Amino acid sequence: MEYRLLGGSGLKVPVLCFGTATFGGRGDFFSKWGATQVEEAARMIDLLLEAGVNFVDTANVYSTGLSEEVLGAALGKRRQQVIISTKATYDMSDDPNEVGSSRYHLIRACEDSLRRLKTEYIDIYTMHTFDAQTPVEETLRALDDLVSSGKVRYIACSNFSGWHLMKSLGVSDRYGWTRYTAHQAFYSLVGRDYEWELMPLALDQRVGTLVWSPLAGGRLSGKYRRSQPMPADTRIALGAGEGPISEAYLYQVVDAMDEIAAETGRSHAQIALNWLLRRPTVSSVIIGARSEAQLRDNLGAVGWALTPEQVAKLDAASETSAAYPYWHQRGFQRNPTAVPYYKNWD
After folding, report:
1. CA distances from 12 to 9, 106, 181 (A)
2. What is the rounded distance in angstroms from the CA atom of residue 121 to the CA atom of residue 124?
């Protein structure tokens, strides 16, 4: 298993991370993702550790805390062998203060996550989304205090826009507080918006990327085929998918993946994940699985590499028009966005 530094920190993480949104199955939304319980979760942890994957991601909102509970129980005495990432910010109840990134909520949320995970510390504590109602200074000072107390080792953010992240980094630098080490972002062969602003920001500020939904909610798993009905048992069919992606665009990319699958003998999921591992800023890709078979297939994304020609074919099939101001900046050759960052990042 390949390990990479997480952004500008000294923490090394495996290039694959296991996401546990499928653990628990509580509530209408997360029950559509999966309902893995402790015994099966423990077996999955066994398989991950055998493969060299010692990085697990969860969140307090997943099954309203049950995902963390299942993970904590499944790990048992193996806690020291695993890097745990969990998240806070989303609503945990109808209490108006049990949501957001206020000092009040974060300290309470952290204590609750520690209890559910049966651990004394969280390796990576992530703000699940940006809270526009709480001052950035309040959030970052609270996080810095959690780090100073030893309850949190590193902090990260998720689903921030460029200005959200840059403002947060600037505030941390101004006061000497702990910086966001990583950004957990939506990125895939059919979701490349990340490349326009967040990727160059991450390169400039040494923020590692933890990719969520690398298969675009299962669209790149090989189950979605042109002129065929949508599989009935998928998250998207059940109304729990992510991201607005047109069918025409999806099948254009799937056609290119079909060709590469025939050339390599690799599954569509392995091809999609391997493509992401070739991208700049990516420290780790978060994989999920509702079954042992899915997990084994996803683990097969490492240990081999797409050829430059195959990467170019996938790049071309998934390319989209640049958003403003990037199309305009291409007219000025001193601007790095004159050529997409992923093509000249060395």
Report:
1. 8, 26, 12
2. 9
Contact 271, 260 (CB under 8 A): yes
Give catalytic residue positions.
62
Across the strands, what pairs with 157? 127, 183
Residue with tokens 């990125």: 187
Angstrom distance (rounded) from CA 219 to CA 226 = 12
Which of these CATH numbers, 3.40.50.2300, 3.20.20.100, 3.40.50.1980, 2.60.40.10, describes 3-343? 3.20.20.100
The per-residue pLDDT string of the chain (346 residues; one tens digit each, 9 = 90 and over) reads 999 999 999 999 999 999 999 999 888 888 888 889 999 999 999 999 999 999 999 999 999 999 999 999 999 999 999 999 999 999 999 999 999 999 999 999 999 999 999 999 999 999 999 999 999 999 999 999 999 999 999 999 999 999 999 999 999 999 999 999 999 999 999 999 999 999 999 999 999 999 999 999 889 988 878 777 666 665 555 555 566 788 889 999 999 999 999 999 999 999 999 999 999 999 999 999 888 899 999 999 999 999 999 999 999 999 988 888 888 887 776 665 555 555 554 4
Q: How far is CA 290 from CA 41, 76, 95, 113, in A?
A: 10, 21, 32, 23
Residues with Cβ within 8 Å of residue 298, at least 6 apart in sequence: 16, 269, 270, 273, 287, 288, 289
